[in-house]
Amino acid sequence: KQEVTQIPAALSVPEGENLVLNCSFTDSAIYNLQWFRQDPGKGLTSLLLIQSSQREQTSGRLNASLDKSSGRSTLYIAASQPGDSATYLCAVRPSWGKLQFGAGTQVVVTP
Amino acid sequence: EADIYQTPRYLVIGTGKKITLECSQTMGHDKMYWYQQDPGMELHLIHYSYGVNSTEKGDLSSESTVSRIRTEHFPLTLESARPSHTSQYLCASSAPGQTNSPLHFGNGTRLTVT
Predict the structure, then answer these.
(1) What percentage of chain A has pLDDT greater than the value 90?
(2) Inter-chain touch B90–A45, beta carbons under 8 Å
C-alpha cells in the first residue's frame, strides 16, 4: 500500500521567508501528486497537481517539484505572508488504488 | 468559490440518532467521494461513487451508508450515531474520465456525537 509522509508536522517562519514543504511516498508508480491547502475547520483547496510525466508545476508564488524515482515532492512558497498560514497536504494517486493523503504540515507565518 | 456544498457545517447530536450529511456539486462531476478526517491526521476514504447508482466502500471501514440517485447529490447516512463517529466529514468530486483531474472539496461537516 502506498504510504505518504509529510515532515515536519508543523513549521513556523517569519514573514518574507521562503517556505519549503516536503512530501515523500513509498511507491513510485503514480499517476499524479496533488498539493492542497486546508484552513482551520474548512475543506481542502487544490493548489497544484503534478502529473507523473512532469518534474514541476508553478502557480504564482507556488512551485511544486516531483522526483518519482526518489519518491519525493517539494512545495516551495516564495516570500511567505501571514495569509499563507494553513495546513498543507499532499496526496498521491497511485497507478492502482485510490488517492492517498499525508497528514499535512501545519504552517504559521508570523508578521 | 465553492461548487461543492456540504450541509450542515456543524452538527451536535445524541447517541442513537439517525443523521444524513448532505453533499451536492454543480460541476457535473461523475466521481464523488466521502472522506473522514480527525484532527492532525490524514484523510481516510470511506465511500466513493463513479456515477449514478454506483457506490463503493473505501479504505476505512465505516458504519455509514451512501446513495447516488442523482449525479449532483451524494448524501451520507448514519443510522445510529455513536461517540466514535465524532469527526470531520469531507465530500469531494472530480471530473469524469480523467485520472489526472484535480479533486474539489466541500467545506466539510464537523460532527459531534454526545
Answers:
(1) 83
(2) no
Question: Which is nearest to A52 in space by CA: A76, A77, A75, A69?
Answer: A69
Of B91, B82, B85, B93, nearest to B109 (Cα)? B91
| pLDDT band with cut points at 50, 70 and 90 for residue B42 | confident
Determine the residue of chain B that is closest to A48 in CA distance.
Answer: B102
The one-character DSSP state at B101 is P
pLDDT at B101 over 60: yes
Q: Which of B99, B102, B107 is opposite residue A43, by nearest beta carbon? A: B107
pLDDT in tens, A47-90: 999 999 999 999 999 999 999 999 999 999 999 999 999 999 99
Whether B92 has its CB under 8 Å from any CB of chain A: the answer is yes
CB B37 within 8 A of CB B55: no
Per the CB < 8 A criterion, the answer to whether A8 and A105 are in contact is: yes
CB of A48 closer than 8 Å to CB of A57: yes
Residue A41 has a pLDDT of: 82
Chain A residues 88-107 with a CB less than 8 Å from chain B: 89, 91, 93, 98-104
Tell me the DSSP string of A45-100. Answer: EEEEEEETT-SEEEETTEEEEEETTTTEEEEEESS--GGG-EEEEEEEEESSS--E
CB contact under 8 A, B99 and A32: yes
Determine the residue of chain B that is closest to A95 in CA distance. B99
All residues of chain B having their beta carbon less than 8 Å from the beta carbon of residue A4 are 42
Residues B81 and B107: their CA atoms lie apart, in Å, by: 21
